[in-house]
Design a protein that fits this description.
Strand order of the largest sheet: 1-3-2-4-5
Helix content: 40-55%
Largest sheet: 5 strands, mixed
Mean pLDDT: 80
Order of helices and strands: HEHEHEHEEHH
Distance between the termini: 72 Å
Number of strands: 5
Shape: globular
Structural class: alpha/beta
Length: 171
Amino acid sequence: MDWLTIGLALAGFGCLCCCVNMCAAAREARKPWPECPGRVVGVHGLTEWKAVLASARSKSALVVVDCYALWCPPCKRAAPTYGRMSLEYDPETVMFAKVDVDAASDVARLLGVSAMPTFFCLRDGEVIDSVTGWRESSVRRMLDESGAKLLPAADEGDEVAGGDDESSRLV
């Protein structure tokens, strides 16, 4: 094997590593916010926004959207709680989304965002309620009043009844 072959093989490996890293970076950039766990869809433009609305419409679900800015302190405080809320509500009744108003200014303009954070609740693509500023209780009230359903909480007894504990077995 000559040095040219080795060099080309290494260059190919380097290119592969570069592509893998770029793909990982692209996936990371598509996330709605680094500290936002849960089932939250990041919206980065009008095409993605239309896809979120179409998906929600197909299952008759609400859409709740957090319009935020990276430089906004209340937005940063809201992110982790908003993400956890997305895990508490039934995804068949509500979809959670986040829109960076600076990156997706077309969507922000369409929604009429004038302050951050602003939370909108939409049914069939139409805004039915909104909350400006971050107050968890206000966002929860908006969701509950709009028809979003909480997932049933697991009862402590369910774990025992389904476990291998001898007391839970039928004799």
